[in-house]
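FAQ: What does a ligand-bound record look like?

Like this one, built around zinc ion:
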Amino acid sequence: MLSLLHEIACIMRVKVWQMLGLIGLIGAVFCATAAPRAEHVLIISMDGAAPWVIRDTPMPTLRQLAREGAVTWQAETTLPSVTLPSHASMLTGVTPSRHRITWNDWRPTNGVIQVPTIFAAAKQAGLSTAMFVGKIKLYHLLQPGTVDRFDFAGKDSNNNDASEQGYRSADGDPRNRARAVAARAADYWRRHRPNLCFIHLADPDWVGHQYGWGSPEQRRSLQTVDAALGTVLGAVRQAGLRSQTVVIITADHGGHEKGHSKGIPADVQIPWVAWGRGVRAGTQLNLPVNTCDTAATALWLLDVAPLLPLDGKPVTAAFR
Ligand SMILES: [Zn+2]
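The answer part, i.e. the structure of the complex:
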């Protein structure tokens, strides 16, 4: 009788283990085939777009995206609040002390960033990637083999004429660079549908340094940027990707007077708007958001594992 009970107990145990194994297998299959939160993530950086200037500038497209999305106008960039280190944090998820891009101009001999960018992680996961930038120094963020299409203001990475001069002669006034960058990015979206894309609209920074933050000239450049947002989003819609895409619109720093490197709130505060698939529409984000969080959010949305521990965290409160 005892041995019979023992035998039944053994059979039951085997069954339990088999069941657990089966559940695990189903779970693994489910996880392996579970869709990412978004098929496409588009990060748009409006260079030098300070929330205090945006507030009183007609930017209907940005305002509509903010209304339909999740927003904070009090996100913060990393210090120093300057273009290249800030974009490096935005696109790696780590602070300048870790990514070590501490300079802010184009220095070819310095080479490329040494920590993996989100493009490196996305590429390793088999995704397609693209960058469209308006300043040559962002070449420092281009790690070999990580970006399918790198476009500097109308010149792609196969073109060796990587110089500001080359751009100026080709496209004229650098203050209208956002228009050119957006047009090329829009064209690329219609044809190639990248999974992860970064678009950099430089104009408000150029104009701010020349005429001042909050000047009528800079407000006009922000309107140009707003039109550029419309161009790009139109292309996302035309590509049929509206329902699969998350767009994050932000900036590398704000500014005051004719600069942005003092580290005061006007320099450090940046907009952060998430719009699109799975976003909690009409959400005011009442939590600290840092530019490192942009990288973390992009990878989380795409279900791509970071290649190093990040200082940023996904802004999960923005999503359902
Ligand atoms: Zn900048």
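Follow-up question: can I read anything off the structure? Yes, for example: The CA atoms of residues 219 and 265 lie 19 Å apart.
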